[in-house]
Amino acid sequence: MGNNFRVEVDESLEELQHRLRRAVTATTKERLQMLYWIKTKANACGTLSPKGTRCANANATRQELSQQLGRDESTVYRWLKRYKQGGIDALLEIKTAPGKPGLIPETAIAQLHQRLSQPQGFRSYSQIQEWLTQEYQVVVAYKTVHKIVRYKLNAKLKVPRPRSAKALPEVQDAFKKNCQK
Q1: 148 in helix, strand or coil?
Q2: Residue 152: left if φ>0, alpha if ψ -120 to 50, beta else—which one?
Q3: What is the domain partition of the chain in residue ranges?
Q4: Is residue 162's pLDDT more than 80?
Q5: Could you tell me if 11 and 39 are in contact, meaning their C-beta atoms sit under 8 angstroms apart?
């Protein structure tokens, strides 16, 4: 005899329809669609037959649901088990991997951000690399330092644009006066 795993959907049809219309990702839509089909199949049959017994087709079988969803039966079983244990919030929760921890500790990043906000700052990314090695004993690639400073901290190095050694200050002053007009 097969596993007789039945799930009663607590949410109303209106609530499921509302959530289905507002679902953003395909995975949440699939899971809500499964609950909706279970609920509509139970309502179509009615809760009790005239003799007081449950209708034979009151619950959609996992096999039918898996065929309709295009998923394996074990996936449908896992979703239903998750719903039975934790409700709709547990069913719709999508777990993601935490990812690899960063090479630079958070204290170092906070200190770096504070240092970059000061007027003197750093002159180059290699200077930041050296500072991280001296202060925190962390050896990090140039590219990593650039990504952290530029994109994570949204900071820029405090380096003036290079000027030509041959440029005359009088010519530059004249240019500045003419450009402002």
Answers
A1: helix
A2: alpha
A3: 13-92, 106-152
A4: no
A5: yes
d(CA 128, CA 116): 10
Per-residue pLDDT tens over the stretch 122-135: 889 999 999 999 99
Least confident segment among 13-27, 71-85, 113-127 = 113-127
Residue pair 172/134 in contact (Cβ under 8 Å)? The answer is no
In the chain, the amino acid numbered 108 is: A
- The amino acid sitting at 109 is I
- What token pair was written down for 162? 């290079």
| Residue 146: strand, helix, or coil | helix
Report residue 52 as tokens: 């007081």
Helix (H, G, I), strand (E, B) or coil at 95: coil
Task: Print burial letters for 10-34: b (CB count within 10 Å at least 16), e (below 16).
Answer: ebeeeebeebeeebeeeebbbbbbb
27 contacts 71 by C-beta, under 8 angstroms = no
